[in-house]
Amino acid sequence: MVAGAVRGAYRRDRRRLVELLRAGGIEDLAVLHAFDAVPRHLFVPEAVTHRAYEDVALPIGRDQTISRPAVHALHLSLAGLRGGENVLEVGTGSGYQTALLATLGARVFSIERIEALSALARARLTALGLGEVRLRVGDGSAGWPEEAPFDVILVGAAAPAVPEALREQMAPGGRMVVPVHTPSGQRLVLVRHVEEGWSQEIVDEARFVPLIGEGRP
Ligand code: SAM
Asked: Considering the entire predicted model, what is its pTM?
């Protein structure tokens, strides 16, 4: 639960952002509520705080970005969380989506390859009372086998193909949202673990930083 005092700041801007997301087609009320509850301005550097509630990606240091709110909203809607799910996030980045996931009631495991970003995310999440999320520094393309299987896997960087190790760590009935490079550009892929194996569906175009890792698809 995000502490009351920080929720007060930028409240109107947050409301405007929620309306923007709703107008853009996001219908999941739990997702919209999470955007209303989590203070995005605390997840970006001070120099860009004034842009925190615009629907734009912003720099977070180390050549990385926090994704557009509309992109996070789409990924979270595709995840279809109702609370209590085991969720793996690859690419903690600023920790903002991690906070949204925790607010949605997920049990969150998040991996980031850049230690400084993970440490900053840890401090922000703890300050917001979301310290129960589990963060790890490392190559997320290998997943987190000790905590598998996962009901939902969200990948925040573009992979050459659906990473095999992550697919293997999906729970039956589970979903993975992953941007993948294709000859015609990046595509957002929704993978489902169905009875007969896995199904794959392209749901949108995508524009992400590359997934950098050893894990081969
Ligand atoms: N959702 C994040 C947020 O709310 O700030 C933004 C994620 S950012 C677009 C992608 C992140 O993935 C970067 O922080 C990058 O360092 C990380 N990344 C890239 N390859 C990775 C890998 N193999 N394992 C873990 N993290 C990785």
From this structure: 0.95
